[in-house]
Write the structure tokens for this entry.
Amino acid sequence: MSNYWPEQNFDAGKFHLQLHPYLAAPENVFAPDAALQYGGDFKTRFARAAPQNSEIGLIQLIFPQTAVFPHTQIRQWNVDKRDPTVGQQPMRNCLYSEPGVFIGAHSQYYAGQPTRHLSPTECWLIDTPREFNNRFVNGRFEGDTTTKFANYVVDMPSGKVFDQGMVWGYHVVQNSKKPNEFEPVVVAPKESRLRENNEHLDAIARFLRITRDQVKSYIA
């Protein structure tokens, strides 16, 4: 039986999210080594309404329950990337992934595809997060699986970031009557304004080691 749940598609402004939720529940929630694996394979896309000349790319912020990178702060917003490259323009430094990186064979839907695409007309990213949680007490799952993502667009030539973005997330619930059954719950994407979201601003500022006001100065 596949651990993937049915594909879901969402639109939020000029963003589109294609999501394949992933959930691997333990066979026996009462076993000492019971653990829950959850996440998804997804593609986030931003498309302009008309052809443009300047290349664009995506930033991804993540609110995780486990540390993705050494600098990751759990249960807080983080830039979903490794440490920034010294000397690179700030907002371009926040772009998701790196050139020439491809999705591994673990993904049923995106294996072999590049993790990101930049172009003047549209940009996209592909992510396949997996998290583990073993917080089981007498068969009841007491862990927190709340995971959230946010995306913003960077104009490559200017290094400016668009104010309007998208935020969404998911979590896992356990069936109260059948404790061995679990279900992923997706929180549908909605629009987000970077200038008005201090948590997102602070995540970028912390990653780049600059101030919140300096981040705001790069918002188009």
The chain has a mean pLDDT of 95.
